[in-house]
Amino acid sequence: MREFQINHDRRKSMSVHQQARKVTTHTLQEMKRAGEKITMLTAYDFSLAKLVDNAGVDVILVGDSASNVMAGQVTTVPITLEHMIYHAQCVQRAVDRALIVVDMPFGTYQGNSAIALESAIRIMKESEGHAVKLEGGAEILQSIERILTAGIPVMGHLGLTPQSIYKFGTYTVRAKEDSEAEKLIEDAKLLEQAGCFAIVLEKIPRELAKKVSEAISIPTIGIGAGPDCDGQVLVLHDLLGITMDFSPRFLRRYLNLADDIDGAIKSYCSDVRSGDFPNDEESYTS
Length: 286
Ligand code: KIV
Known about the structure:
Elements: H1 2-12, H2 25-34, E1 38-42, H3 46-54, E2 59-62, H4 66-69, H5 81-92, E3 99-103, H6 113-127, E4 131-133, H7 141-149, E5 154-159, H8 165-168, H9 178-194, E6 198-202, H10 206-215, E7 220-223, E8 231-234, H11 236-239, H12 257-274
Parallel strand pairs: 1-2, 1-8, 2-3, 3-4, 4-5, 5-6, 6-7, 7-8
Helix pairs in contact: 3-5, 5-6, 6-7, 9-10
The chain binds 3-methyl-2-oxobutanoic acid (KIV).
3-methyl-2-oxobutanoic acid binds next to β6.
């Protein structure tokens, strides 16, 4: 009875969209229209995806940041379609409510729209994710249009696009110059016209992100793009304080799990070495 009351009270304080049984691209559109912020986080495995979904996050991104966070690669360039499908399958088994967006990895959509469509179909069929995300604007428009013809929802990604790191040379803030800012606004409009359902804006000045968010009717999801985007995304391992060697200005750490995990593992080692673990209660008898 008490649990029912708590759930009832919690639901009463939630918006219609937060109560949605399943988040869809349509829900996100409605949230933008209603001025409700969209929450998005990455996940790459079953256990953490379950926690993220249970906590009520609207969108789970199976990001190609798995290349860094899961595989220890320096960039997102090496991750393959097979790796992304594997991570998306693990996440999909855990999720009841959130919309699952899967990153298309580098080399599976640039320059050839037929390959782009084939890759997106593989992601959808083999992982049962709900949408794909591609980095770039006008240069990849044909790929986006072709994927959309198959009824696959597409999220765009503008600003700092980490798959192009070797072109940029650094991970610093993008579009500070007028010409790059103008191109970004044009690209955002192109993606909207093509039929993308949302756009990630990564590491751009907050004023520009505000301008883009006001100029288009689809939601913008910011990372390092200030408070005026329609939603926010972070890499889960950064927010939890598991990855400690990455501290950009935009990151807010809600936990310092690296320290807690270190302490727990050291205690375990010490208990095993001293003979304290396992004790009588932790042992079976015949
Ligand atoms: O791969 C990823 O985690 C991303 C986010 C940074 C938006 O693309």
